[in-house]
């Protein structure tokens, strides 16, 4: 599996050329510093041209990238003493959603998030990050536990959507998502949701009813995938690129629409380039959010959450 995105090909080729030139200069004892410096300048300019002007479809590709950090990656870098909890106490455990108790800056919190796999075997185990109803019920169990013990809830969103299979529907997929939406709306503790990859449909929203909704710069949040939208609008999924541009599903677009509160900057080239540094960038926003929310009363938290979602959206008159 390639560890590069398709639009990065010119950068990869130039980096390889620079590496070859450095190796050749060292091997032959030749001073090629001027040539190398010229190429490195060209590389810096090319990086700025590509990463500084990403199109919506390119952001979709980054959000879906197999090496993009997952919930467990961020838990490792942001929290201490994470204790994962399993099961929904009704049917089974769902590995597509992970959750548990941890310490953040010395304070107890509940952390919940979608979890994709890192390779084929892991993806099959985690159902490619698409939860069954028991995953959402596990998440709700942990949220209610957090409410009981007055712990803030931090959710990481990263899913193509809830699993649409027969077994999931038989076990009440729609009801599980709807119940999460209702219960999160009235939860009496702070909720901070962060979209770290794909935020797909109700499967994402089931962890997204928060006091603050933040998005990584190259993540997406939408009611349907670009391919699905293209199939509906143009009867052809190959128009996904045009759909991505039309749907306004990227972090900058959603910030303008008032759907998300903060666009969290990503390291150059995407979060996968430096997970530790990316976690630090998330940490800054998360700390500020919790600092603000933990000073509010339960009634204030619920009221502000209600007002937030009531005001989301824009009325368009034709």
UniProtKB/TrEMBL annotation:
PROSITE patterns, per database record: COA_CT_CTER
EC number: 2.1.3.15
Domain CoA carboxyltransferase C-terminal: 38-292
Major localisation: cytoplasm
Reaction equation(s) it catalyzes: N(6)-carboxybiotinyl-L-lysyl-[protein] + acetyl-CoA = N(6)-biotinyl-L-lysyl-[protein] + malonyl-CoA
Compartment(s): Cytoplasm
GO MF term list: acetyl-CoA carboxylase activity; transferase activity
Listed InterPro entries: Acetyl_CoA_COase_a_su, ClpP/crotonase-like_dom_sf, COA_CT_C
Annotated pathway: Lipid metabolism; malonyl-CoA biosynthesis; malonyl-CoA from acetyl-CoA: step 1/1
Keyword terms of this UniProt record: ATP-binding, Cytoplasm, Fatty acid biosynthesis, Fatty acid metabolism, Ligase, Lipid biosynthesis, Lipid metabolism, Nucleotide-binding, Transferase
Oligomer status and interactors: Acetyl-CoA carboxylase is a heterohexamer composed of biotin carboxyl carrier protein (AccB), biotin carboxylase (AccC) and two subunits each of ACCase subunit alpha (AccA) and ACCase subunit beta (AccD).
NCBIfam families: accA, AccA_sub, PRK05724.1
Functional note: Component of the acetyl coenzyme A carboxylase (ACC) complex. First, biotin carboxylase catalyzes the carboxylation of biotin on its carrier protein (BCCP) and then the CO(2) group is transferred by the carboxyltransferase to acetyl-CoA to form malonyl-CoA.
PANTHER family recorded: ACETYL-COENZYME A CARBOXYLASE CARBOXYL TRANSFERASE SUBUNIT ALPHA, ACETYL-COENZYME A CARBOXYLASE CARBOXYL TRANSFERASE SUBUNIT ALPHA, CHLOROPLASTIC
UniProt family annotation: Belongs to the AccA family.
Protein name as catalogued: Acetyl-coenzyme A carboxylase carboxyl transferase subunit alpha
Annotated source species: Aliibacillus thermotolerans
């Amino acid at each position: 599996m390639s560890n590069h995105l398709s639009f990065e090909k010119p950068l990869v080729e130039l980096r390889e050329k620079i590496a070859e030139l450095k190796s050749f200069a060292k091997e032959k004892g030749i001073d090629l510093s001027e040539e190398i410096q010229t190429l490195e300048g060209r590389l810096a300019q090319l990086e700025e041209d590509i990463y500084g002007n990403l199109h919506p479809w390119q952001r979709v590709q980054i959000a879906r990238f197999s090496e993009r950090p997952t919930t467990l990656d961020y838990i490792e870098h942001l929290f201490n003493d994470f204790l994962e909890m399993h099961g929904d106490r009704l049917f089974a455990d769902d590995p597509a959603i992970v959750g548990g108790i941890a310490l953040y800056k010395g304070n107890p919190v509940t952390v919940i998030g979608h979890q994709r796999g890192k390779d084929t075997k892991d993806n099959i185990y985690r159902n490619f990050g698409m939860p069954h109803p028991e995953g959402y019920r596990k998440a709700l169990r942990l949220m209610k536990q957090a409410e009981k013990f007055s712990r803030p809830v931090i959710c990481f969103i990263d899913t193509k959507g809830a699993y649409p299979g027969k077994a999931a529907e038989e076990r009440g997929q729609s009801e599980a998502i709807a119940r999460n939406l209702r219960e999160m709306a009235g939860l009496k503790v702070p909720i901070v949701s962060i979209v770290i990859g794909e935020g797909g449909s109700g499967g994402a929203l089931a962890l997204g009813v928060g006091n603050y909704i933040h998005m990584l710069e190259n993540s997406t949040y939408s009611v349907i995938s670009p391919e699905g939208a293209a199939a509906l609008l143009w009867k052809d999924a190959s128009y996904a690129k045009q759909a991505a541009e039309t749907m306004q599903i990227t972090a900058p677009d959603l910030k303008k629409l008032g759907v998300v509160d903060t666009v969290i900057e990503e390291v150059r080239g995407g979060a996968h380039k430096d997970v530790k540094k990316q976690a630090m960038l998330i940490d800054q926003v998360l700390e500020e959010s919790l600092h603000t929310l933990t000073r509010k009363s339960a009634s204030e938290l619920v009221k502000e959450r209600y007002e937030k979602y009531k005001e989301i959206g824009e009325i368009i008159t034709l």
